[in-house]
Structures are given as C-alpha cells and as structure tokens.
C-alpha cells in the first residue's frame, strides 16, 4: 500500500479500467490514498470542495404553488365552488362573493398552515442523516456521510448502511444486502479479489455500493465514488419525483370529509323543502340551503391532519423521538405491548469489566467507564496481572479480539470508537498495561472472523513466530462448545464434560448477579492459516469475563409509566437468561416473587408453526425472553399480533431489522443503533431511553385526540346552525339567522378556533388510560351523541336569545336577528373552552394553556364586534347594533351551554367517584 500523496487525485482515475477490475493496491494508488493513515483532515476538506457533498438528488420539496393548488383540489373546494356558481346564477352577487371569500380565505389559511407544516416535516427528515467511521490522520473517527470523499478509508461492520461506492481492501466473512440495486433478496458474499471490467453490478464482489447494507462480517474499503457518481446516484432520478403517500390517518379524515359532504347535501335539501312548504319563497329557500351547505362543510378537515402531525412530530423531537414514518404517529397511540431489548435501553450501555472467572479463581477489577486506572484482586488479594498467567492471557485475548480503539480528545480525555463491550475489554487490558497498539505490534492481526449472530462469537488471527494465535470471544455456551481444553496457569488441561457443566453453571451465576457474560478462548494454528481456513474447534478455554452495565435510573420509571398507560413491557434479549432476569428485576419488569416460568430461553423453542399450545402460552406470558435470535423475535411479534396486541419493537442491530419491519411500530436506537436498524424503523430514539417511547405514545394519543376534538367542535357548531335555521324555517316570522350571517360565522368562528384546538399539547390524563382500539373510527357513537347534544344545547340557547330579543325589540326589529347572530357566534366561541379532556381541571387544562386558542378567541371576538358595530359590514350582513340590552342577552344566553356542560361533567364525575 502507498502513503497518501498530497497532490490532487485525477478527476477520472479509472478511465482505462473500473475499480472492480483493479487490485485494492492499485485503486488506493490511483486515489493518492493511504490504508494505514487515511486522508488528512486538510486533504479531505480540499477534496470535499472539489467533488461536492456525498448526496443524491432528492425529490424537490413541494413548491408554494403546488401547496396552493392543492387547497382547491378537494371535494370540499369543489362543493364550495358549485355553491358560489349557484348563488351567482340566482343573481345574488353578495352571497356568491361571500362564498368565494370563504373559499379563498380557507385556501389562504390552508396554504399558510400546510406550508409551514410541510417545511417542518422536511426539516425533521434532515435530522436523521447517516454517519460513517473513517480513518483520518491515522485514527478512526465518525463523520457525516455527506462529508465522505474519494480516497477516504471507511471501516464498517454488520448493521452499517454503506454510504458511498467503495473498493474493498479488507473483508472478513463479509455479506452485503444489495437488493436496493439488484433486486436480489439474498445477501452477496464479498471479497477483495478483482473481477473482469465487464462484470455486472451483481458480479462486482470486490466493491460495495452506496445504499446497500452490511448483513454479516466486517470490512475496510476506500471510497472511489460519491453522490450522483455512485451506482445508486445513476438511478436516483427515477424516484426523485415520487409523490409521498398519505398516511392512514389522513385517508380516514378524507373519508370522513366525503361522508360529511353527502350528509350536508341531504340536510340542505331537507331545510330547503321545509322552507318551501312554510311559504318562505324559492329564492330564500335556495339561498339558505346553499348557506347551510357551505356552513356545514368541514373546510379545515384536510388541513388539520397535516398541522396536527407536524406539530406532534416537533414535540416528539423535542423529547428525543424522531418519526421516520408518519403512519406510526397514529399507531403509537394504540400501542399495547412494547418488546424492548436490554442493553442501552433498560441499561446505560456503559460496559465495564468487573470480574474474570478463571481456573485460578475470581479476579475483581476496579474502575468504571472510561477510567484507565484500576486494580485486580484475585480472591480478595490485589495482584499484578503479569503474575497470574490466566489473567494476563484473558486480558490479551480481550485486547486482541476487538475492533475497538481508544484515543484522546483535545482536552486529553479518553475517547473510544467501537462496540461498548469491546471498548470495556480494551480498557481492562489497558489497566494492566497491555495497550492495544502494543498488543497488535507484538502479534500483528492477519485475519478476522467477524461476529456472527448465529454463531454468537468472534475470532481474530495473529501472527507469531511459532504460527498463528487465535483469540476468541463470544457467548459462554458458544465458546464452551468449541473448547476441548482449559487454560490452567501456563499450561492447558483437558476440559471434561463435568468441568464444562461447572463453567456453564458459573456463567449462570454471573448472569444472576446482573453481569453480561462472555467466554474467552485461545487456539493455535499453523503459520499461513487464514480467516477463511479457520473453524471454531480445538480451542482452549481461558475463562469467563463479567461486565456490568448499570440499569438506567429512568428505566424503572418508564416501565411504571407504561404499565399506567395500559402498555405491557417485555424484555427480548440475546443475552444470558439470568442476566436478563436480574436486569428485569432491577427495572421493575418482574418482581422478587415472580414465577421464573416467565423467563423463557428462546433457543429451545420450535418455530411458530410448530409451537405447542403450552409453549405459545409461555411465550405470551413471558416477561423476559433470552437468547432471542432474529427468527424468534419475528415469531414473538406475530404471536402477540395474533392475540390482538399492537406491538412496538425496539432494536439496534442489523438482525433486528426484520423484527422492526414486522412490528406495528419499529423503534430504533439512535445513539448505538446501526443504520440498517434506523432505516427499518418507524421511530428513532435520539437518546435510547425507554421513557422516550412513553413520551412518543403520549404524543401519538394527543395528536389523535386533537383531531377528534377539532371534529367534535366543528360538527357541534354546524349542527347548531342547522337546528337554528331548521327551527326558524318551521315557524312564521323572520329567520333567526340569515344566509350571509351563516357564511360569516363559518368564516370566522369555525376555522380559527378549530385550528387552534388541533395543536393542543394534550391532556396528561391521556397516558393514564388504556390504549385506543386501532380500528376505532375518528368519531364513535358516543362522540356523535356528544356532537348532537352540544349542537342542540347551542341551538336552544340561540333560539332563547332570539325569542327574548323578540320580546324586547319586536319580531321585525333588525336587532332581534342581530342578537341571535351574536348569541350564536359567542356560544360557538364559549364552546371552545368546553373541548377540554373530561379528566382535566375546568379552569387549568390543555385548552386554556394553549396560547393559540386565546389568540383565536380574541381574533374572532373582534371580528364579531366589527360585524355588528361597523356600519359597512353590518349593512352587508343585514345586522344592526343590538345595543346594551341585546349584548347582555346574547352574552348570557351564549354562556349558558358552557355552564350546563361543566355542571353535567361535575355531576357525572361525582357519581363516578362515588
């Protein structure tokens, strides 16, 4: 391999032959790169300026013109336009103009709110940018994927999504899912050998491609193409203009809107018929029917979904949950079961080696986290590791069999890159003076057998004078299965079946104390042995290492919150069963007296199709499922889904991706999770906290509740208008509300308060309730009853004001109609305050805490005052100032429904408590 050159690499270094047809050394040479040191920071910055960011062309954001046009492309807008045409045809330009004004104002409100919501969601998606591990200035570091440049040396392992086209320079049992490019569902095995220049994409085994995922093994590669120069870039333009699909939530709202339009037309026709039979005249009957149709159309319904979703998503981000799939927002509110992993979710993922179980005894290790100082105590007596051969060998194995590296930041503090478990092993070795650089220098690595989730172990091969040393670590049972001997002092002794059972019992005992347990082993192989030749057999057991990962202080609170919310929590871990049970007890998943039958070892279970009834019931009742493989996770999810559960599944590894896809809500870890897991998930936890899931569930419930509240409010107002006009049509005398007045109310009191209700933060009581049935409609029968009850109470209050005004002013006095108009307007505004959750306090609740609600009420009140007191507008609406007596009558009558609602709630609440 060549040293990095500072001269600019040629813009087209592969004109004569493509990278896959060259050896790795030739590709590195042509890119003026270095495998050992990577690029310098300065050189990387210069190449980034030369080649541009490593990004694909993205679908252009919805333009303002497109968002505006969409406001008119709905059945609701079409019906409004038809009503305007009919009004003009009846030679009523004022009413026609008013309907056009309604249409334009709704479009303006929709455009403004939806544009902000769309831009907000586009900004949210930018938060989930991928990163890559690269070698810069001789050390590993994490950089944004967009900063990769040709010549960068990238290190990756199973679970990573590859973010550039790269030529492999090293590979260990590497397999890559290339289905995004080739459509092939099976992973493609990779190696470093060149292939013919004419090889197709699926035959280029020596290169890996942007957008593909590492499913097994590990590797190192040099970047040769970024951005639109990659294979994925060449086809990205085909999908760049794809239209985003609407969520099930939005589609349900659309269906509700269409049904309401049909209902509106029927109601308008009935009112028109009633007016005609009452002798009101054809023109007034048609005008009133048109006004009622316009008034009862839920114009804001298509907008509120986007606004509510966008606001809810921003709240989730503020609580460290990034929503990748909009449909998950609604599903979160219905979640009944959380299947959570252990490490990093229930624990801190801050691994520390605390003890070694060796043939000579138990060695305790002091020092936590990234501390590089500590003592080793053999059976209580402090010792020097070099004086205990088994201990020194265990430390060497842990320091060699790893991909982790330690470093220093600018302040001199210890930093680490790599898996937390491997970091802990390297730190333990460093405490004994065995730093990794020195270990590798003394025993250079010549090969690696990458960790495999099915084998549950990893090996590295190291050159020595007398052959090859093999260092192995993995799950205790997997390591024990490959061992024939036991390291005792400087020698090795046969490992009998009885001794093997004792070591297995020792692993159980470590796990019961909350330790994560690994087995360590060594092997000797002839010189020239490669990773491809190695088999897990004929090894010598060095011992067991116990690592402590403290339970998160917040985990118990999160579990308790889930239980209060009616959500069951089950731990699903690949770790030892006793370790899982111990952590489960620490965070409240299981109690001290719980039946150990709720701990299930997934290794002994058959596939889902072959499970017996007893086995299925054990799985359904389990609190901890240990040694869970990808297949068993899928089976567990399907089993619970068959029982009617709405399942949220957490995961972080590449092998969790199928389960994250299968679950109703896939939740990936944003801190330690692999890119494959994040891409498969619906929600990414930016802090890896279980409590964040609870917060996300609360927000999901709040979003649905906001939409439901908005719809109930809007329809209650519409029903009140229908009943007022319908009652007025059945009796002689002037109508209580005239067509233009209805349009004005629809324009003012419906839209602004309704949109404000759509962005409430939600009642804290929502999370204390059982999950909602995911099949439940937006409005249940109980909600429809509430709509008609509220509408009837509002209509009764308005008709009372109208009757009272008739007594005060006379039936033909314009102040009578004005009083009814003001009473209806104020009653609808008072109703906003009645839209609180039934469990909230009457004065301090999610509605009264919403500043948008108060702003909407103030604006609407000002417009109502303007309508009756400003002569030009009052003339158009055919109203007159009602005077002090009319205002007092309207205010008193309009407040009555709110008082009645609160009294009713107080009585019902007292009965329920009693």
Descriptive overview:
This protein has 914 residues and is of the alpha+beta class. The protein folds into four domains: 125 residues, Calcium-transporting ATPase, cytoplasmic transduction domain A, CATH 2.70.150.10; 284 residues, Calcium-transporting ATPase, transmembrane domain (Up-down Bundle); 162 residues, Rossmann fold, CATH 3.40.50; 197 residues, Calcium-transporting ATPase, cytoplasmic domain N (3-Layer(aba) Sandwich), CATH 3.40.1110. It contains 29 helices and 28 strands. Strands 10, 11, 12, 13, 16, 17, 18, 19, 20, 21 and 22 form an eleven-stranded mixed β-sheet that branches. It has an eight-stranded mixed β-sheet with strand order 8-28-27-26-9-23-25-24, with helices on both faces. Helix 4 packs antiparallel against helix 5 and helix 10 runs antiparallel to helix 23. The longest helix is centred in the C-terminal third of the chain and has 41 residues. The protein is elongated.
Give the CATH superfamily of the largest domain: Calcium-transporting ATPase, transmembrane domain
Instruction: Report the major sheet.
Output: 11 strands, mixed
Question: How many helical elements?
Answer: 29
Relative strand content: 15-25%
CATH class of the largest domain reads Mainly Alpha
Overall mean confidence score, pLDDT: 83
Question: Share of helix among residues?
Answer: 40-55%
Anisotropy-based shape: elongated
Helix/strand-derived class?
alpha+beta
